[in-house]
Amino acid sequence: MAFFPQNEGLFCESPKPITLIARHLHGRGTWLRIKRLSSATPTASPPTSKDSIVNLDAGDPTMYESFWKGMGDQGAITISSWQTISYFSDVTNFCWFLEPEFAREIRRLHKLVGNAVTEDRYLIVGTGSSQLLQAAIYALSPSDTPSPMNVVSAVPYYLTYAPLMDYLRSGLFRWAGDACTFKGDAYIELVCSPSNLDGFRRQAVLKSEGGKTIHDLAYYWPQYTPITNPADHDISIFTVSKSIGHAGSRLGWALVKDTAVAQKMTKFIDRSTIGVSKVSQIQVAKIFKVVSDSYEHPIPENPNKLFDFGRRLPVDRWKKLREAVKASKIFSLPEFPSETCKFTGEKAETLPAFAWLKCEKEGIEDCASFLRTHKILTRGGSYFGASPNYTRVSMIDRDETFDLFTERLSSLH
Amino acid sequence: MAFFPQNEGLFCESPKPITLIARHLHGRGTWLRIKRLSSATPTASPPTSKDSIVNLDAGDPTMYESFWKGMGDQGAITISSWQTISYFSDVTNFCWFLEPEFAREIRRLHKLVGNAVTEDRYLIVGTGSSQLLQAAIYALSPSDTPSPMNVVSAVPYYLTYAPLMDYLRSGLFRWAGDACTFKGDAYIELVCSPSNLDGFRRQAVLKSEGGKTIHDLAYYWPQYTPITNPADHDISIFTVSKSIGHAGSRLGWALVKDTAVAQKMTKFIDRSTIGVSKVSQIQVAKIFKVVSDSYEHPIPENPNKLFDFGRRLPVDRWKKLREAVKASKIFSLPEFPSETCKFTGEKAETLPAFAWLKCEKEGIEDCASFLRTHKILTRGGSYFGASPNYTRVSMIDRDETFDLFTERLSSLH
């Protein structure tokens, strides 16, 4: 699940309001309350001075802007005003709002990368992966059960799972917390792999005949982790935002084995939003095509390739971050295994979209609060049911933001 | 509320399955079940022969295609691949996913048409008006109440209101049926005006201190009804699909008076889909601009104007329909009042997007079923809690479909 920035919650109170942010923003009266929340700071714009707030709290994938600017007009689309009138994209498909070209390019991209089995799988499009997660939970929850289905995930899980499951107080499903301590047969286990906290691979921890599993594979792409085999789960959810960067297009997709589940997911999206933006699907189909073409039919004038860029930049960033951590002497980072990536054919280290930073200095118990006093905004460990010694730092923001972060971090002792 | 086609439910069983439709479609195994439902027939494509099925069951606004084709490149947009990376559209607005240009053009269009007060109103964008309706109900339902808030509407109401309120079995709100018979103080009344059944204006029937009202103004545009004054309600919901035709772009907007309600609606859309497609907003902002420019800065090369087209065509269609009804001698239609439209300055008749057709012939108790035997698909009165003598016919489909319909209708005796 992407879960950024808003499923982390513009509205979740952060432990310590950032009053200094308020000075940087202008808005309506009660927007002041929101402006005081770290994830409401303008990650959409880079820092303007050495003294600026560095906001790496959310996961806005603005790192990808420079790549797409480098691609020039290749990914551009022109849409005629009469193109998106009808509700229907494909009346021969029960997922009637799925644009056929979008579906073709998704299957083509998975085949190229080798990160998911698409043969004999239903493809369901959603308005971002968060809608698809809700659709999958709706589809897996019996409608005739007297008590809600339990939705669980292994700790450390993303704390926003809870409000996402419970914000409508559904009688069909409810958040039931840590999968590791869950007892019972009736459950849906969410498995986010690689983890959207620390980047490590995850597997389902529960096994039961009555249990169901949903795999959130938002980060199972070569830029973040070695591709070891094509994912082949009952329900696998992917998102455009973390695969190619276009979070603002609000698109995700699910690969689903079971017909009834795929139909019920379609029904959920039908009820929830009467389908999914055709314009976004047309745009992203074109961009997926550019990505696949760059590998299958490269053109000499522009040798840029998304996943090459997506490896190169994080390699450099993780190197810089580890140097800054070393220089500071008060932080530490997890070490990751290296494996052979079947897509690149090379041995590759895991390079998560987020750094799980730990403050080792005695007397500092809350890493995020300590960084906040230095105007570095991150997402504290307590958000994930982990120790506040840890904090999560986005690694996929713009260069200016990331460079200012490592520069400032290395100066902290 | 638009509520077409999918909130009417691809999945709602129609009284009598249309097996003959199945021959026209090809799809996966269980899609056969869906193909048997009238609203699943391809309204996205016009009839191919005199003998074709005429599907006027849903409300696919394909009538507008010919207008936008006539506008040539004026409404076209080109979007660069790097344009929609960030989640954020406007970090100075608590509705952080609202594209400023889209907001500007909405306010400009309302000012031009005079159909809604926008000054000192919050503007919330949604993935179609159905998401906004759910957001508004969420916003108006107390989170600390022991029993769900009652959502009501005056009969005849659209039967899909019920599943839309209840599909998640929320503990916050529930469908409570007919507003006219509702007793109590705690309710949310949905007022769809003009009605999405018969085109008549509606007003709230309940009045209570504890009661709330949501106005669905999808059809309050000059092509359907005379504009008599700017709507000024606590919550007014509009949709792109019925105003300019672009149902496939999945956009709607709400004008909201109260800050806390607007924030809670934003929070719902944040949780539900983490915002709204930027690409759709960029496209529709451009199309709104073309519409407003055509009135405020007309160009001699292309004098076409959306609302002029939107009046001209329905005037012609309603004339043809009344002639067909007269020729058949077995049907009747409601008569509508004429009023001066403040937008056109002319006396104008109400020309609803749907015809509420009644079969007067003795022995025919189910009008929709009778028409179905003649391969005319409509939405029977029973869907609206009304007599099956009535059926609802879409007036906003393509010319070919509409002409075939009136031709066939006039031949029925």
Automatic annotation (TrEMBL), chains A, B:
Family per similarity comment: Belongs to the alliinase family.
Record GO terms (molecular function): carbon-sulfur lyase activity; transaminase activity
Organism from which the protein derives: Phoenix dactylifera
GO BP of this protein: amino acid metabolic process
Domain of life where this protein originates: Eukaryota
Domain Alliinase C-terminal: 54-412
Protein name as it appears in the record: Tryptophan aminotransferase-related protein 2-like
Gene, per the UniProt record: LOC120104136
Cross-referenced Pfam families: Alliinase_C
Keyword annotations from UniProtKB, A to Z: Pyridoxal phosphate
CDD domains named among the record's database cross-references: AAT_like
